[in-house]
């Protein structure tokens, strides 16, 4: 999952693509290669040993989170935000007084960078830091910067300084393509924020945006909040599956993998029982988004949110989802019948398939058909081995190596966080990845990529290196073994590393379009593509070794694992279609024709097929409504594109260096500085031009036509 910045305009743009290669010439050639460090150590070993953490430096100077001096204490967030706000005032004055030209765009980008360097960092700290004081200070910083962003997006003088540039044809023609696109993106952010409105309505737009930020934060917190029930209301024989608190049982999740049908049913009904406060918050959030969209000139929030994406509008999204649903329907029915038969076999008293059944019974079917019990695979997937596997793949494909680096005292928020230096064989140091991989109390149960600092070319010619965090929830090592991953955990690790490489690989001139700051329905392409590598035996064979014996993972076990993923795959994808359709309806025409729960019931029956369970409200746990509002379909569309890229570029040889370089140059290198479909088509066009076989050439041309016509 990509953690999407919630700021628009001068804040982080939604989603991400790495830096632009700037024509692959001038910018890249002008950046000095960073030297290697003698303090780096091999990545695999670093993850299979206990962390040494800050204990090596008990008396050293405290550096502050991510090396930011102010953030050695929670109060530092106030200092950092005030410094950013003061710099913002100076840059606004500078932008308004500078004659229109390329310098205007550079000033706007520096303005964006100064705000994002506080907001992006705070956006991570407010949910991940173990100390409440840090989380609260980061939350306040997010709100303060967010409010400033919304004010800037409705600043008429600032808008006019950019409009003068883009209204002058001679000046526009003199801009390089990336600078022109970044200028247009900044202008677009003004327009969707209501810059064309009168002063009173602009203030209303700012107020609505701030309200949406607050509601989003409240809703997000509520999606993870546990429910409780009096003990005597639960059958005694299943109580031990849950946490007790006095006279109550705490239900903090769906327990989807529990083998007891009654445990899953109880968890589903209790965890999804509607909370009146959370329901009110969702209704206000959706209503506020709709009011904002209408205020700035869009018929729905979805129309506003999808500007600039691959899909472009909600009509295209619904057409895509309905077409996909039609193609899946027959296979989905077969999957549900297969699940029903397995349930009847194990529980003859009640064979009706309910929403809490597919995750568990599909796993049972996979295990029975292919003997893929996770415990058989885990010993081959130690965390260190998987990290070394990523290192091997990235080195052979892109000339990238990962090295562990000892963080300074105070630089990380937990002693088990690892810091990785990302180094290119000829370009040197590209950036840093902080790996927050292990479970701890109060840590969100989600796998995410966070941008902490975007890359950009600075005025002095140096490059501001990107910094990101990968957050997973892996078990800790034990006395007898290192951290061992299930196949699913290993695939998630590769997925998130795809986001990180998206952020690291490339060198955009502007941070506003760096890394994952690209249209959301393209941002998941690099991460989903990495899942294909994670499921290819030629890749897995490079690193999957038994942590005790060193024995490689047998090829037939990998084959069985890959085959097993086809089991109930249609039903799994149909569920995602249902979520995406629900998201579109919630952000479509308002007022909604029914309550959010009634709409959930109707949409579930139309797009999924399993019955709605009375007195449940799954939508109140749908956390993606915050970061991916009106854009949840992005996972499905990105998967379609990633599948095509895999088949056309890497299926024949997953270590093809020429294909890897082409993938970086034509796709990863541009960040949000180029239209997504142009990037994908560029990869395919190069394939066509270099293809010696007429049959393959015909297939590649068909793929390009499919991209242009059928996908959207």
Automatic annotation (TrEMBL):
<dbReference type="InterPro" id="IPR001567">
    <property type="entry name" value="Pept_M3A_M3B_dom"/>
</dbReference>
<comment type="subunit">
    <text>Monomer.</text>
</comment>
<keyword id="KW-0408">Iron</keyword>
<keyword id="KW-0464">Manganese</keyword>
<comment type="similarity">
    <text>Belongs to the peptidase M3 family.</text>
</comment>
<dbReference type="GO" id="GO:0046872">
    <property type="term" value="F:metal ion binding"/>
</dbReference>
<keyword id="KW-0479">Metal-binding</keyword>
<keyword id="KW-0106">Calcium</keyword>
<keyword id="KW-0170">Cobalt</keyword>
<protein>
    <recommendedName>
        <fullName>Mitochondrial intermediate peptidase</fullName>
        <ecNumber>3.4.24.59</ecNumber>
    </recommendedName>
</protein>
<keyword id="KW-0378">Hydrolase</keyword>
<dbReference type="InterPro" id="IPR024077">
    <property type="entry name" value="Neurolysin/TOP_dom2"/>
</dbReference>
<dbReference type="InterPro" id="IPR024079">
    <property type="entry name" value="MetalloPept_cat_dom_sf"/>
</dbReference>
<dbReference type="InterPro" id="IPR033851">
    <property type="entry name" value="M3A_MIP"/>
</dbReference>
<keyword id="KW-0645">Protease</keyword>
<dbReference type="Pfam" id="PF01432">
    <property type="entry name" value="Peptidase_M3"/>
</dbReference>
<keyword id="KW-0862">Zinc</keyword>
<keyword id="KW-0496">Mitochondrion</keyword>
<dbReference type="GO" id="GO:0005759">
    <property type="term" value="C:mitochondrial matrix"/>
</dbReference>
<keyword id="KW-0460">Magnesium</keyword>
<feature type="domain" description="Peptidase M3A/M3B catalytic">
    <location>
        <begin position="255"/>
        <end position="684"/>
    </location>
</feature>
<dbReference type="GO" id="GO:0004222">
    <property type="term" value="F:metalloendopeptidase activity"/>
</dbReference>
<keyword id="KW-0482">Metalloprotease</keyword>
<keyword id="KW-0809">Transit peptide</keyword>
<dbReference type="InterPro" id="IPR045090">
    <property type="entry name" value="Pept_M3A_M3B"/>
</dbReference>
<comment type="function">
    <text>Cleaves proteins, imported into the mitochondrion, to their mature size.</text>
</comment>
<dbReference type="GO" id="GO:0006508">
    <property type="term" value="P:proteolysis"/>
</dbReference>
<keyword id="KW-0007">Acetylation</keyword>
